[in-house]
Amino acid sequence: MDRAIVPLRQLLLLLGDAAVFFVALAIAVRIRFPNDVEGVIFAGHLPSFSFLFCLWLLIFAVSGLYNITLGRNRVLLLRVLFTALLFSAGVAIAFFYLASISITPKTTLALDLAIMSGLLVLWRLFYNHLLVSEKTFRSRLLFIGVNDETRELISELQTHPHYGLDVAAVISLNESEISGVPMRHTLEGLSDFLKTSHISIIVLAASLRSTPELAKQLYESIFLKVRVTDVISMYEQITRRVPVSAISHVWFLENLREAAKGFYETSKRASDILGSLFLGSITLVLAPCVALLIWLDDHGPIFFAQERLGRNGKTFRMYKFRTMIVDAEKNGERFAEKADARVTKIGRILRMTRLDELPQCWNVLIGDMSFIGPRPERPTFAAELTQEMPYYAMRLLVRPGLTGWAQVNYPYYATPAEHRLKLQYDLYYIKNRSIVLDIVIVVKTLNTILRAAGQ
Fold first, then answer.
1. Tally of structural domains, the chain
2. Which pLDDT score is estimated for 452?
3. Rounded to whole angstroms, how far apart are CA atoms 106 and 28?
4. Which of the listed residues 6, 111, 155, 425 has the most CB atoms within 10 Å of its CB?
5. Do residues 379 and 273 share a domain?
6. How far apart are CA 226 and CA 434, in angstroms?
């Protein structure tokens, strides 16, 4: 399967936004300076505005505007876009009037912001329409074989048309049915079906080795140049987590090549040290104010320390600003929940802004944690979860983090099913961890903080 399906659409979206920025600037300069026929004034504006446009693209990314599924809700898209535009306008004003810039384009900047906003709304609405309706940008999928991952994937693709992947049909090798999807129960005439249905990707939930007829039919269709992938790979690409059925001893041996991560781990540790020193200094500045607010709220302790499991199962003390009432677990240990009644008023604000996590900079500095990784679990809970999920302990292959892939995709994990989902996200991160994925997690975390969506 072409792994660039979703990233390509995001890249096109980003390039389209950048093009809108430059076109809007050209129009604004032309209106402001109609005699600039040779474009001298426009050329003079380009260096400063180009740097500003990079800042705008970063703001858009942090705002979540390059999440292509955002477009399925037009009202939400416009609301997020409007918020990002307001923030971008503020950054532009600060950039030109607070920094030492050679130009101060008052009228030009106002024109540019107005024109850019209008063009951007039109471009975004057009792009979303194009993704959903234009066949050129879409791929037709044929699923062969039915299992739980097949059903979940089909539901995901039907719910998110902006992936650009249409389920053309499902060939069930038994009598399984999936409602709302064209079904076939035979492999005969597969080559003709692929041509007449314009199939571009075949997703296999059946084993070629155990189904000779399927291998024969696919061999006869090889000149059609249809891409073939397995449902596990497709599931991982679309959902960004490892399917439960794939988790086995063999999966870990095939996918977790820790020796190949040496350079990444070294560079990540260096960035953790530098980041903890920087954020630690901010923590020292904010700590007196935060401490006062916590104490005024209920006169209880300022800090909260708790034993957690770290890399390779080593226990450590994790520190946070206290956000729950005193004796929150007097009736026994339990997982935090969404809208947890034990959270104090000030604690709710600290959680929304993630300020409660700042004391963990000390844990990062001394090597107990990283900024990015699976969230550290309490030993008691980890033991219980390992009983239910034998591979749960594999989360301990890497340092736990302040934020992680599971946290930015799902806020709270309390039930066994939710913890199974969390394990899927954590294993995806452990397998695919890289500088690029870490940057994505940072951007998603900043988006959560700016939207005050943290819990």
1. 3
2. 61
3. 11
4. 425
5. yes
6. 30
CA pair distance 162, 170, nearest whole angstrom = 20
If 0-12 CB within 10 Å is exposed, 13-18 middle and 19+ buried, where does residue 34 land? exposed
Do 321 and 296 belong to one domain?
yes
Q: What angle do CA 46, 52, 57 make, to 5 degrees?
A: 120
The token duo for 289 is 């104010």
Query: What gap in Å lies between CA 172 and CA 182, rounded to an integer?
Result: 10
Supply 140's token pair.
């037709």
Structure tokens at 269: 């540790």
Domain that holds residue 150: 138-239
Query: Does the pTM of the predicted model rise above 0.85?
Result: no
With respect to residue 439, please indicate whether it lies within any of the assigned structural domains: yes
Q: How confident is the model at residue 154 (pLDDT cuts 50, 70, 90)?
A: very high
Contact 58, 64 (CB under 8 A): no
pLDDT digits (tens, 9 = 90+) for 81-100: 888 899 899 999 888 877 66
In Å, how far from its chain's centre is CA 102? Answer: 38
Residue 340 CA to residue 344 CA, distance in Å, equals 9
Q: Which residue has the higher pLDDT, 448 or 1?
A: 448
- Would you list the DSSP string of 134-203? -GGG-EEEEEES--HHHHHHHHHHHH-GGG-EEEEEEE-SSS---TTS-EE---TTHHHHHHHTT--EEE
The verdict on 392 and 267 lying in the same domain is yes
The CA distances from residue 382 to 67, 161, 436, in Å, are: 33, 38, 29
Residues 6 or more apart whose Cβ sits within 8 Å of residue 149: 205, 231, 232, 235, 243, 245
Q: Which amino acid is at 246?
A: A
DSSP state of 343: B
For the chain, what is the total number of helices (H) and then of strands (E)?
A: 16, 9
Which residue shows structure tokens 């302990």? 393
Among candidate residues 115, 133, 151, the one where a domain is terminated: 133
Strands (E), 147-251: 165-171, 183-184, 201-204, 227-230
| pLDDT grade for 215, boundaries at 50, 70 and 90 | confident
**What DSSP letter does each residue of 243-285 carry, written as one string?**
-GGG-SHHHHHHH--GGGGHHHHHHHHHHHHHHHHHHHHHHHH
Q: Which residues pair with 183 in a beta bridge?
A: 170
Cβ contact 92:113 at 8 Å? yes
Does residue 166 share a domain with residue 36?
no
User: How far, in Å, CA of 144 to CA of 133, rounded?
Assistant: 25
